[in-house]
Design brief:
With about 160 residues, the protein is α+β, with helices and mostly antiparallel strands. Helices cover about 40% and strands about 20% of the residues. It has one domain (about 5-155): Sufe protein. Chain: A. A four-stranded mixed beta sheet has the order 3-2-1-4, covered by helices on one side. It is globular, with a radius of gyration of 15 Å. Bound molecules: zinc ion.
């Protein structure tokens, strides 16, 4: 497969996720809730998380929001990848994603779907679109249990 074809494939996955997201909506119940905004593109996102009873493991992540294909596809792929992950693991994934956007890392085999976003690292103006959902996740996980959704994470 040539690099061009590979890029097309990644683009296809991103567009497919944008048109038919699998994790749109809200979790029931909502254990964590966080809004995020990327002013440079106008993307907004609201994440809701369902955790296990101890609050140490992510059972489900859903998102609502509006934005470009990259922001929405990134949120959908993230929500899928986080199912069943420990909170600690999820925070490591945030760091890995940020490193990937600098061209310094990628995800291992079991999380390889997230590597679809790797191509975005070549377009610096779009990196904030891809990382918005991860920034928002980090804030959601670090907010105290039962906190109100008053916080608004800005990606700037
Ligand atoms: Zn965007």
């Amino acid at each position: 497969m040539t690099l061009g074809n590979l890029r097309d494939l990644y683009q296809q996955v991103i567009l497919e996720r944008y048109k038919k997201p699998r994790y749109k909506g809200k979790t029931d119940p909502v254990h964590r809730q966080q809004r995020g905004h990327n002013p440079s593109c106008g993307d907004t996102i609201e994440l809701t998380l369902k955790l296990n009873e101890a609050g140490t493991q992510i059972e489900e992540v859903r998102f609502e929001g509006e934005g470009c294909a990259i922001a929405m596809a990134s949120a959908d792929l993230m929500a899928e990848a986080l199912r069943g992950k420990q909170v600690d693991e999820a925070l490591e994934m945030v760091q890995r994603f940020q490193a990937m956007m600098k061209g310094q890392a990628e995800f291992p085999q079991e999380l390889r779907k997230l590597n679809v976003m790797q191509g975005v690292s070549q377009f610096p103006v779009r990196i904030k679109c891809a990382t918005l959902t991860w920034h928002t996740l980090k804030a959601a996980l670090e907010s105290p249990k039962g906190a109100q959704a008053a916080g608004f994470v800005s990606n700037e």
